[in-house]
Write a structure and sequence with these properties.
The protein is α+β, with helices and mostly antiparallel strands. The chain has a domain at about 1-185: Beta-Lactamase. It has helices at about 1-65, 70-80, 125-135, 175-240, 250-295, 310-315, and strands spanning about 90-95, 100, 135-145, 155-160, 165-175. The longest helix is centred in the first third of the chain and has 65 residues, at about 1-65. It is rod-shaped, with a radius of gyration of 55 Å. The model is unreliable at about 285-295 and about 310-315 (pLDDT under 50).
Length: about 325
């Protein structure tokens, strides 16, 4: 019974380790899939925002191209808003860094602000001017915030150069709400991942319990039970009982072992019988020796002078 318990504990331990490994792989796979889905969603949202900004800049570009002078174009762009709540806007700088339109900070208009930096210290206006001069248009992100205690907002800018006036038309849009959308989506994915993990774990536990039960039964039937039969047979042989034929239904090795024990049992029985027979013969041989010793001894012949017949005849004459 002790061997059976040890084997069962070994099987259960192996199954627990297997469950832990499967759970770890499941968690890793689910986590990797969720991260890949989040990255894909973020890329889709950013791509959509870039497309909207590009369309807005093209519209503003058309307005500037149809204007006859700077002032009508400035006024038109100053009043233009887009996006949800109409909080997104346009601003315009020239190649020297002077602002021509800035509805959020009207004090910048007419001033060169090429070295202004965002909340992270990046001179984003200078970068816009450099990239627009080299490629004509593009995108840039910057952080907006006035102090260490502020919550910085990430903003996305699409810019396009209007070469006729050396203007760089920029459409500015906040994208911090994307982080909120991603956080909500991540929470949803996490809940689904936990539910899926619990379902997988439940199926694994049921499968492991069934496997443990079946393995225990098989081990008990094909290993433990034959070993116990062999043990009892060995005890009977030790007590001198050689008349029992051992039959087991285990595996091939167990049957071969039982066959060897049966052969040993026959050999021991024959050897014991021969030993007993030899002992009985040894008891008979000493009795014959004693009877020869008790029989009367023959008389010793006398060979002294006068004992021969010739001597006797000479004396008579």
């Amino acid at each position: 019974m002790k061997l059976s318990k040890e084997i069962n504990l070994l099987i259960i331990g192996s199954m627990i380790i297997l469950w832990a490994l499967c759970s770890g792989v499941s968690i890793y796979t689910l986590r990797s899939n969720s991260m890949a889905e989040m990255d894909h969603l973020k890329e889709l949202l950013i791509t959509e925002r870039k497309k909207n900004l590009r369309d807005m800049v093209l519209g503003a570009y058309s307005v500037v191209a149809t204007a006859n002078f700077y002032e009508p174009a400035q006024n038109a762009l100053h009043d233009m808003r887009f996006g949800e709540g109409r909080v997104n806007y346009f601003f315009v700088v020239d190649g020297d860094g002077m602002f021509w339109v800035n509805p959020v900070q009207p004090g910048f208009v007419g001033k060169v602000k090429i070295d202004i930096t965002d909340a992270e210290g990046i001179p984003y206006i200078r970068k816009i001017i450099q990239d627009a001069g080299s490629s004509g248009e593009g995108f840039i992100n910057y952080k907006e915030g006035s102090g260490p205690g502020d919550i910085y907002e990430t903003r996305l800018v699409h810019y396009k150069i209007f070469e006729k006036w050396n203007w760089i038309i920029c459409a500015d849009m906040g994208i911090s709400d994307i982080d909120n959308v991603l956080a909500a989506k991540e929470k949803e994915i996490h809940g689904a991942m936990v539910t899926q993990f619990l379902q997988i774990s439940g199926l694994l536990v049921v499968a492991l319990l069934l496997t443990t039960f079946i393995s225990s039964r098989l081990v008990s039937k094909r290993v433990v039970k034959p070993l116990m039969q062999i043990k009892h047979a060995a005890e009977r042989i030790g007590q001198g009982d050689f008349g029992n034929n051992l039959e087991v239904r285990g595996g091939l090795e167990m049957r071969q072992l039982a066959k060897s024990i049966n052969s040993m049992q026959v050999s021991l029985d024959i050897a014991l019988k021969m030993t007993r027979k030899m002992q009985e013969q040894n008891k008979i041989v000493p009795l014959k020796g004693n009877s020869s010793q008790n029989s009367p001894r023959p008389r010793k012949k006398d060979f002294s002078p006068g004992s021969f017949p010739a001597d006797r005849i000479s004396k008579a004459s």
